[in-house]
Specification:
This protein is of the alpha+beta class. Helix content is 21%, strand content 28%. β5 and β6 form a beta hairpin. The protein starts with a helix and ends in a 5-residue tail after the last helix.
Length: 149
């Protein structure tokens, strides 16, 4: 009986923690045509490459709906600390919505825009001053109006 209890306890301890639920996000209506992307893997390769660079120190950015460390109570040491929520392409600007865990879960947006490197290759880069918290839709609209963080 005790052995059965110990096996049950051991199996429960090895189970993966539950995946934090995705937030219920309202659609964002920009004044210009916008394309909604709901999965990170549906972004262009250049955007994924820049997200990988941006979130490298945060153990990466999880796909929408996937597990990430949503609190400061670390369950899986190598799990990403951030998760992709959605993205909008407005003109040549990508607005990437994401959430980051920790003592307080935060939702943020960052803008990516194309920039020509010295070798002539055009890549997407995070725009300085484009990281915003709060109302992510309003933040994207403010960015397009010239506001920087």
């Amino acid at each position: 009986m005790i052995a059965s209890f110990m096996l049950l306890l051991a199996s429960e301890m090895q189970q993966a923690p539950p995946i934090p639920p995705m937030p219920n996000l309202s659609p964002c209506a920009f004044e210009r045509p916008a394309r909604l992307v709901e999965r990170k893997d549906a972004l262009p390769a250049e955007a994924i490459q820049e997200l990988d660079r941006l979130f490298r120190s945060n153990k990466g950015i999880a796909e929408a709906g996937a597990y990430f460390e949503a609190s400061d109570s670390i369950q899986i040491p190598d799990a990403p600390r951030s998760r992709f929520l959605r993205a909008y392409l407005v003109g040549d600007t990508w607005f990437i919505w994401f959430e980051t865990g920790g003592i307080g879960l935060s939702r943020q947006v960052v803008a990516l825009q194309p920039r020509r490197r010295d070798d002539g290759v055009v890549q997407l880069y995070a725009v300085p001053g484009s990281l915003f918290s709060g109302d992510l839709c309003a933040a994207g609209k403010a960015f397009l109006a010239g506001v920087r963080s």
